[in-house]
Each structure stands twice: as C-alpha cells, then as structure tokens.
Amino acid sequence: MTFFFIYESFFPLTEIKKSRSNKNKLPYFDAELKELQKIKNKSQRLFLKTRLQHDRINFVRARNNFNYKLRQKKRQYFHEKIEKLKYQPRDLWKFLSENVGLGKSQDRNSIQEEFYINDIISRDGQKIADNFNLHFKSIGEKVVEKLDKSKKDTFVNVKYDKRIKFRFSIITPMKIFRIMESLKN
Asked: Nearest-5° angle of CA 18, CA 37, CA 20?
C-alpha cells in the first residue's frame, strides 16, 4: 500500500453541503423569490421526471422568471443601499468590499504562481506559458478539423513558423485609445 492510498482511505475528499438555512440568507431574497424558486424547482423535477417538451418549456419559463426577478431584486437592493450610503464613504466602502469583492483580499486578485505540468509542479513562467500555448494550439487544431471544407481551406493554407513562439505583449491604455480612435474613422 502506498502513502497516498492510506491517506485517501483515512482522509477522503468529501463535499461540504450547504444547509438550506444558509443558502437563502441574501438580504434581497424575500417571500416572492422563495415562491418563484419553489415553482422553478417543482417544474424542474417534473421535467426531469417526464422529459416532455411542454414540461421543459414550463421549466425554462419558470427558471427565466425566477432569474429575472432575482437579478431585479438584487439590483434594487444594491441601488437602495448605495443610495443610502452615498454620503457615508467609510460605510459605503465597507459595504462594497464585503458584498462586491472590492476589498484588500489577496486571494481573489492574485495570480497563481505555480501550475501542474505533466504531474510536476512548475514555477517557471516560460514553461507555463509554453504549455498554455500548446493547450490552446491543440484546441485550435480540433476546431479546424471540425470546420467544413470551404472554411477549413482558409486556415490550412496559412504557414506558421514553428520557431517563433507566441508572446503576449504589454499593452498600455494609450495603445487601446489609439486603436479605438483608428476604428472611429
């Protein structure tokens, strides 16, 4: 028995399930949304049970209606809260950092520094970039294979120099401005 097998047997990965009581603790989640959610869930269960087209249509309508109302209530809540706090900058920034993610947290804004490449952790930026390029190149090749013959010819005839590696270049706001100005003409 290997270490990992023993480790997995004693410390298996488990999914943490959210309790229903914590799930709907959104300040804008009111009785109307709760009722729409029940209708949506009921129609979803019915569709999954019967797989009939009209049940699917009813489920999609209920889901879209629930999502529409949810976004509307959320937008209204944030609008009212920001309007209420607009003359209290400290409280406004606290509210925004807690609810929108504009805080000082490094976890959400940091770039991952290491990646697994062929089951080996790599911190070398060049190696990571090259493997990303290979990955997206393979996706591009698969897309070209799926294109019909008339569209495929435009991609196949293009010759690429394999010695030249793709690099992202730094782009400044001024370059973006110039590009946008040239598009207006």
From this structure: 20
